[in-house]
Amino acid sequence: MRPSKEELASAAGRTIPDVVGPGLAVLFCGINPGLYSAATGHHFARPGNRFWPALHRSGFTPRQLAPAEQDELLAYGLGITNVAARATARADELTRDELVAGAEVLAEKVARWRPRWLAVVGVTAYRIGFGRPGATFGRQAEALGRTGLWVLPNPSGLNAHYTVDTLADAFARLRAAQVSSG
């Protein structure tokens, strides 16, 4: 069921649990939960978000999962977290300090769970949070310990520069690197 306007409004500031566990090949990292995701408790839940179709079309999952099936990702060696935990209507509502603090918390999660790859979906959040103003999409030169860093385009429907197919191509490049390093 779709959340009501009241449920969406009351979701501001909420957090949702990470989908994490040991032995992850890739830990996908959103910028922060949107209100729809916070209201439902599922990552990338808003209709029109292209994360789930891109994940499937790139070969990470054998079928397209629904946001409510997010826990099934663990069986594929995949997880989800966010740079900033606080739900907002738009990612640009986050402050620079929130993104920097979130990147520090994210580094702690990576140290704990030790995924092979951390894939941040949002180059601007990555640039600000990790202090890498010149970062571009793809594999990053630096790593977090033994975890490789990859930056993907944001799959939000608000990111009109990318279609599901171009997002799937970007995700597929990560998948190829993950398989070859794996």
UniProtKB/TrEMBL annotation:
Gene3D superfamilies: Uracil-DNA glycosylase-like domain. Keywords: DNA damage, DNA repair, Hydrolase. Residues 17-178 form the Uracil-DNA glycosylase-like domain. It comes from the Bacteria. Pfam families: UDG. GO terms for molecular function: pyrimidine-specific mismatch base pair DNA N-glycosylase activity; uracil DNA N-glycosylase activity. The keyword Repeat does not apply. GO terms for biological process: base-excision repair, AP site formation. The keyword DNA repair applies. NCBIfam families: PRK10201.1 (NF007570). PANTHER family: G/T AND G/U MISMATCH-SPECIFIC DNA GLYCOSYLASE, G_T MISMATCH-SPECIFIC THYMINE DNA GLYCOSYLASE. This is Mismatch-specific DNA-glycosylase. It comes from Phytohabitans rumicis.
